[in-house]
Amino acid sequence: MIEAKEVRKQFGAVQALGGVSFQARDGHITALLGPNGAGKTTLLRLLVGLLKRDHGSISIDGIDPAVDPMAVRKNMGLLTDQFGLYDRLSTREYLAYFGELNGMAGPSLQARIDEVADLLAMNDILERRAKGFSQGQRIKVALARTLLHRPRHLLLDEPSRGLDVMSTRALRSALGALRQDGCCVIMATHVMQEVTHLCDDVIVIARGQTVAQGSPQQLCERTGIASLEDAFVSLVGTEEGIVA
Ligand SMILES: Nc1ncnc2c1ncn2[C@@H]1O[C@H](COP(=O)(O)OP(=O)(O)OP(=O)(O)O)[C@@H](O)[C@H]1O
């Protein structure tokens, strides 16, 4: 369970978050929806302890990431727009390196690499070096690294950007399997179709504030609007940042 209460974060004169509160439950995929600049990435970075909040509280299964970021990261996978691949390492070497950093080793690590490669449909690039990888191939490798150590919590910043149809499907089924395993997944996205098909719960933020939280159906009921996209626009008051 991930909980935030009244979280605020300021960068100089810019108030990135001005009071965000929500709960993301285990075994649920929670979408983080908001226009560009709403504060989604800032929130994810606070949850994993990469930034310190100015105000409020955050609990990751009872642990405050500002107090014990290492304990939080042990059970967390984070996908951001910084993929951090090494051009000269093959995908398998790269994943083995990160697996070892997470205390994995030997045949069980290799078996887990094969499992994740199957899950994300990326066997074709497993033995290739990263130099020259396309955007979609890069994001798959970064995702594989994120999932490798079977984290209990997963924070994904726009995970499907740059993925083709088959890879998007592979990602969705991988996330479905993680949900079944009881993983707590928070996913920032602009893709409404993804939210409708995949997410159990939605947190809407705008201008650094939580505007609403609930299932897609609850948000539609609350606004009295049948389409989630239109309900979102009505909640945030802008059409900016939506991908149909
Ligand atoms: N390190 C920083 N220094 C200054 N301002 C920042 C910094 N990081 C974020 N901001 C500002 O905080 C606000 C929230 O940014 P953030 O990246 O969290 O938004 P976002 O919801 O992820 O946006 P997008 O959908 O465009 O990715 C923006 O106004 C942004 O310019």
Automatic annotation (TrEMBL):
Official protein name in the record: ABC transporter
Family: Belongs to the ABC transporter superfamily.
Protein source organism: Massilia psychrophila
GO molecular function: ATP binding; ATP hydrolysis activity
PROSITE patterns assigned: ABC_TRANSPORTER_2 (PS50893)
ATP-binding recorded as keyword: yes
UniProt key word Signal: no
Alphabetical UniProt keywords: ATP-binding, Cell membrane, Membrane, Nodulation, Nucleotide-binding, Transport
Domain ABC transporter: 2-232
